[in-house]
Fold this sequence. Notes:
2 copies of one chain form a homodimer. The first copy, chain A, is an alpha/beta fold. Chain A folds into 2 domains: 113 residues, Urease, subunit C, domain 1; 288 residues, TIM Barrel, CATH 3.20.20. In chain A, 39% of the residues lie in helices and 21% in strands. The first copy, chain A, has 15 helices and 18 strands. In chain A, strands 1, 2, 3, 4, 5, 15, 16, 17 and 18 form a 9-stranded mixed beta sheet that branches. In chain A, strands 6, 7, 8, 9 and 10 form a 5-stranded parallel beta sheet that branches. In chain A, 61% of the residues are buried. The mean pLDDT of chain A is 97. The interface between A and B is large, with 67 and 68 residues. Chains A, B: Its cofactor is Zn(2+). Chains A, B: It is an enzyme of class 3 (hydrolase). Chains A, B: Belongs to the metallo-dependent hydrolases superfamily. MTA/SAH deaminase family.
Amino acid sequence: MNQLWIKNGLFVTMDDTMPTVRGHMVITDDRITYIGAEVPNQLSPHTVIMDGSRLAFMPGLVNTHGHAAMTLLRGYSDDQKLQVWLEEKMWPMEAKYVDADTRAGSALAVVEMLKTGTTAFVDMYDRMDQVAQTVEQGGLRGILTRGVIGLCPEDVQKAKLEDALSFARDWNGKANGRITTLLSPHAPYTCPPAYIEKFVQAAHDMNLPLHTHMSETLAEVEQNVKEYGSRPVEHLDKLGFFSRPALVAHAVHLNDEEIALLAERGVAVSHNPVSNLKLASGIARVPDLLKAGVTVSLGTDSAASNNNLDLFEEIRLSALLHKGISGDPTAVPAWEALKLGTTYGAHAVWQGDSIGKLKEGYKADFVAINLDQPHFYPLTDIVSHLVYSGSGRDVLHVWVDGRQVVQDGVCTQLDEEKIKYEAAASFDRLLHG
Amino acid sequence: MNQLWIKNGLFVTMDDTMPTVRGHMVITDDRITYIGAEVPNQLSPHTVIMDGSRLAFMPGLVNTHGHAAMTLLRGYSDDQKLQVWLEEKMWPMEAKYVDADTRAGSALAVVEMLKTGTTAFVDMYDRMDQVAQTVEQGGLRGILTRGVIGLCPEDVQKAKLEDALSFARDWNGKANGRITTLLSPHAPYTCPPAYIEKFVQAAHDMNLPLHTHMSETLAEVEQNVKEYGSRPVEHLDKLGFFSRPALVAHAVHLNDEEIALLAERGVAVSHNPVSNLKLASGIARVPDLLKAGVTVSLGTDSAASNNNLDLFEEIRLSALLHKGISGDPTAVPAWEALKLGTTYGAHAVWQGDSIGKLKEGYKADFVAINLDQPHFYPLTDIVSHLVYSGSGRDVLHVWVDGRQVVQDGVCTQLDEEKIKYEAAASFDRLLHG
Lengths: 433, 433
């Protein structure tokens, strides 16, 4: 049995019954076994003691939408019209990817996410074995899925579906349960209806949730209406998509009826504010979604449209943005914004009962924040400070499943120097190869 | 003579004729005396050589609007209606300030700004001697002004004006020219017209520029129309405000005619996107202002409405925000956003000929960014990376006037531990005293 006693820390639990605790937390193996103001008792004689003063502890962040391998394309194309960005820049480069590139990009993403406090992330891409192996090695949680674009001949469609199913089958529950899998037709505008139905059927057969891009741009919504006679939410609903547990990314352009339907069907949303701003897609109706009871979580999307994977930025922006847009300074308060990145993120990936809070019985997925920095002074309100003044650069240590995966800002399970070198080499090859 | 030769660095010059240079920079005393790809010649035999590889160098940032002393109130009140925030939270606490509090808050702000790459800042507050002394000691540049609220009896008005004038007179050009001064009636809605005219007259008499808050909220614009029969820009113009060099903060609610008049009068704007979002004031028409030829710069406003002083956040947000709002992904590209925080900032404080660029003959106010971090890989485009992926936490070293004021992330001229301790103690006294 391994036991860690963190003494005299400031704990941001994300639990409404006691939002912050000054006191103690005990980790026994992979679980939180005690958190409270009082000194714990019944500790093992071999318990490791850690001084928690000058640190704040909070649950690890959950990034609910991204494409890790695209981290290689960070900064390769900015400030462009979406079609130019996608068709002239992203797709030609992505077409050159081999396994080693996916591996290099994913490893770079995992290093960046871990160091900035993300302990679980959703990833949708191809060559997903590479991503899964990186997750296994890096020590974090991955909710992984082979994203499939269905604009191709039937035999190719069939092969892609089979690839998606075999990945989902092979990796679900692997890495001591840190990896779970989903099925993902890429988007309503890139997958014919009959093809989407095949994913829905497979999700039923394999008891898996579904993930897709939805209503990211206005043009896409209009095209859906023109082509299929309904907006994307109704369209996916008709195809049975929401008969499975489902997570949709973006959901920027929604009307009231669509919001009501998402709430009714229990669909979770991944809000990607930075990517949506950068690609000029618009701003999702987050306060309305929350009011309707929809689980809203946060995603970075890829580093090609962000261009970083620090989820604290999404947390801050979801607190700031909706105030400025609505004219209501009470819109998405700090505590709610922090939930988007933690507890709601955990619920969005169907792990709300085990991660996303510092709570007895929960998995020990948590981060330590270095409070001894000028931007955290005076220490008025830790929740406010984390949301409005903090950043992933303030993360000093990270634990997942009770194992320390970042120590003093350095990944303990991954060779950062090698990963940076290989990412640079891969990009160079993609550019000139 | 002191001379520093930085070898093999990546220099982001902010000069359109050669935006980035891989090569060398030489600092002689307080000036940049060489920058270029070739190895410099005619160096002094005592030149200090610094290895610039793995670092990027850029001009120090210019923060054109803030209230440093309010850093003590960071996180003291968030997610509140503006009037509650101001009248029930800010003003009662500010009323308790004594010199030591202003000093403590300003010193904390200066530490945070320096460490995140800001080398010059505009500050509008009272007890400005305290701020000026902190600037003198900290080694950065201050464009300082006693902000005056004129909603008070005539004798108090007179005393405040006199305080503002004597501060401006005493400190202009001090600290080897690092301190310059302005005159500042707080805002059209807090100063009667006749009182504003006194500041305008004094600015003419003393040959000083003017600074004020303007058109931050819609309510304030409407009130101006109701009370004075004109919108704030026309109102200030009639009072002669723009007959002096002028910098206005916020400028969120402007119509086309007002934008044209600001351009015609050569008025500079301080865009404060984070504060404007957080207080739900709205979003300034930055692309339209830039198109009209107005000098737009960036300000954090105070840490009570931000809640940090990292200007990289304003740079990133001014690149992201206007894309999402306008639907145009080419709005405010990265290079332009970086100019807002550097060259345009320098012009906004009338120092565009000496700071804001890495250029021969310019003052040696610059920062070194640690490139060896995962979020800067691959090193595709340094300008994109600084804007969309960087942060003030990436700043390793800072120089002002050729003197190194931050080394390996630590202020060389200030006692950070003492400053943090005193800030905490001051806040505690304000809260409980």
